What does this fold into?
Amino acid sequence: MKEQLYTIPVNEALEKDCECPVCAMYQELEKASLEYTLGPSYMEDDVRMVTDKIGFCSVHAKELYRQQNRLGLALILKTHMDRTIKDVERLAKGPVMGGGLFKKKDAPVVEYLKKMNCSCFVCERVEHVFERYIATIFYLYEKEADFRAKLAQCKGFCNEHYALLYEQAPLQLSGKYLEEFIEMLNEVYLTNMKRVRDDLEWFTDKFDYRNADAPWKNSKDALPRTIVKTNSIRVE
It folds into this structure.
């Protein structure tokens, strides 16, 4: 593969005690990207050119605010607003609606803002590397027996990343490796979904007074683990 492989973070994620190692990969990458955004990089001209142009999504704007580098974030958002004001002033002088008589579309200013509202510096940085993480999973699966065993013994995947791996498998693998991967993926996903479902069921049963003195088993943290499975997010 010509593109860079990320074997270390992929292997480290699989060694974590978590309900979805792919979520763990994404979350570590997202954390690093947030720190990068408000690190020394925000003073670099090439980085500021991009943040000025595309800004941040609402999720990552909130996360950047939590990073506590208020001056850095203020400087980034100030020049982003400068760019937005300048562009809107120019575009607002154009037509109220775009297109011709038989082909209507958004006015240039609306099209500009819609596009910017769907873009995010952190998202783009994360997604670029995350794609290589996914490619690395398939590369290691084909090349290393130890990795295949490690993947088969993990605690499964969330809905989103199970679907992602299922979708990417035919694009990354072929022949016996594809067949084995899909079989393993289905087994690991369903077995662990049922495990967490059963833990969640016992969690609800514990609220019945008849089970007040019964042991919690593995259900005390069943609810946050379920949310990882269903929504690909950790809740504190």
